[in-house]
């Protein structure tokens, strides 16, 4: 058994174990998943939209319009401009929202400036390329009946995916939506995504606002809240639509920020790791995340090395025979398919595929999406192509975290 097979088996076993765990938890908690607490009151909510010069006018306008059209009875809308002003800033003055400004760059700086001007007992952050649905806020506010709840996360969906890359992300967000709800039931959420995250204003002000020097302020504030004894909940019914990157370059940039930011913040709050006092988050979810990263990096490295070895050997042989690149493709495919035999590894692969389809079905149900056959076909492509990309993103992110001199977040 070679290293590539060992790496594949380790990844497959890990995925099978975690998939079964989440499915069993879903079955156990199925009566709680779709129920949001009925609010005891409807306090004023300040909706903060952080904006900078790179945001598009039409998206900002649509974001503001979605806030106006929500049926929540008490709300104020604040555009938080951060960084240098330009013509987009002048455009924002014309929109039906309060405009606050800070010369500091960064989403966290914009939110912190807005916190000085808002009146809401609660505030909801909304990225400038994201849109609330009519009933989003009403589904979330009831969780704040519990005084220990410091924040509530929304359920994000990709807005009108157009190309294959966005469709992959649409499916990824649907699966993440399902998993985040289960993490909420375990009090183990470690990121509060920017689109639609709702917070208790006084708590965030007391904790000093968002970290303006952080690569992933949404992960840092989530861990800081829980380090101070507050809980984070999720409403699976509170949908927020967001525009996903439509090209590899933009997606890679986004994921490097997300993944390296989350990892650096977990290391920053290292007291969570294997700490029984931090509950399921410390004892299970964070160690699980490290295991996932380690296995993913090992697997993607072994696959890339193995593929490079096969490709180089094939190129040397077939170049002598003067085959063209296009002629090599079917030969490589035949070699790969021919290497698949009924054995322990393929048995794992079949079991994983079956469990994956079950997970996707449950995710569609949780996200209130219709089960369409072509979406299952997309999932097969997602498993083959996007899972490889996902591993490459982690490889870049960890490398970036290790070599970047700009990140000074890890306090050993």
Task: Report on this structure.
The protein has 412 residues and is of the alpha/beta class. The protein has two domains: 3-27 and 283-403, no CATH class; 32-274, Spore Coat Polysaccharide Biosynthesis Protein SpsA, Chain A, CATH 3.90.550.10. It has helices at residues 3-28, 30-33, 57-69, 87-92, 107-115, 136-141, 164-185, 201-206, 217-227, 248-268, 279-320, 325-338, 344-366, 373-403, and strands at residues 45-51, 75-82, 98-102, 122-125, 130-132, 149-158, 198-200, 231-242. An eight-stranded mixed beta sheet has the order 3-2-1-4-7-6-8-5, with helices on both faces. Helix 7 crosses helix 14 and helix 9 packs parallel to helix 10 (248-268). The longest helix has 42 residues, at 279-320.
Explain the layout of strands and helices:
Elements: H1 3-28, H2 30-33, E1 45-51, H3 57-69, E2 75-82, H4 87-92, E3 98-102, H5 107-115, E4 122-125, E5 130-132, H6 136-141, E6 149-158, H7 164-185, E7 198-200, H8 201-206, H9 217-227, E8 231-242, H10 248-268, H11 279-320, H12 325-338, H13 344-366, H14 373-403
Parallel strand pairs: 1-2, 1-4, 2-3, 6-8
Antiparallel strand pairs: 4-7, 5-8, 6-7
Helix pairs in contact: 1-11, 1-13, 7-13, 7-14, 9-10, 10-14, 11-14
């Amino acid at each position: 058994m070679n290293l590539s097979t060992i790496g594949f088996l380790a990844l497959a076993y890990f995925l099978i174990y975690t998939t079964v765990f989440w499915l069993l938890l879903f079955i156990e908690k199925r009566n709680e998943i779709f129920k949001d607490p009925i609010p005891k009151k409807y306090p004023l909510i300040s909706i903060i939209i952080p904006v900078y010069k790179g945001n598009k006018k039409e998206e900002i306008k649509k974001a503001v319009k979605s806030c106006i059209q929500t049926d929540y009875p008490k709300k104020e809308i604040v555009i938080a401009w951060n960084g240098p002003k330009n013509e987009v800033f002048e455009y924002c003055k014309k929109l039906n929202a309060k405009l606050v400004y800070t010369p500091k760059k960064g989403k966290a700086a914009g939110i912190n400036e807005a916190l000085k001007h808002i009146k809401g007992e609660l505030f909801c952050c909304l990225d400038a390329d994201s849109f609330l649905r009519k009933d989003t806020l009403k589904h979330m506010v009831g969780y704040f009946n519990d005084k220990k709840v410091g924040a509530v996360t929304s359920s994000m969906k990709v807005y009108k995916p157009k190309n294959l890359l966005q469709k992959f992300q649409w499916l990824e967000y649907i699966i993440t939506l399902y998993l985040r709800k289960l993490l909420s039931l375990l009090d183990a959420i470690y990121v509060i995504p920017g689109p639609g995250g709702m917070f208790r204003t006084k708590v965030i002000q007391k904790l000093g606002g968002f970290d303006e020097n952080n690569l992933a302020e949404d992960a840092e504030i989530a861990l800081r809240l829980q380090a101070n004894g507050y809980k984070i909940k999720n409403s699976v019914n509170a949908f927020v639509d967001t525009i996903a990157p439509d090209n590899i370059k933009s997606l890679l940039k986004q994921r490097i920020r997300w993944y390296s930011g989350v990892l650096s913040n977990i290391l920053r709050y290292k007291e969570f790791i294997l700490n029984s006092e931090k509950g399921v988050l410390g004892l299970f979810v964070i160690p699980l995340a490290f295991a996932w990263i380690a296995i993913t990096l090992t697997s993607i490295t072994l696959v890339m090395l193995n593929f490079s070895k096969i490709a180089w050997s094939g190129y040397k042989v077939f170049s002598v025979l003067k085959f063209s690149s296009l002629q090599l493709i079917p030969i490589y495919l035949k070699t790969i398919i021919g290497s698949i035999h009924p054995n322990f590894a393929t048995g794992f692969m079949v079991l994983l595929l079956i469990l994956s389809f079950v997970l996707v079905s449950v995710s569609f149900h949780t996200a209130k999406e219709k089960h369409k056959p072509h979406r299952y076909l997309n999932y097969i492509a997602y498993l083959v192509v996007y899972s490889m990309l996902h591993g490459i993103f982690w490889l870049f992110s960890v490398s970036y975290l290790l070599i970047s001199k700009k990140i000074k977040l890890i306090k050993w």
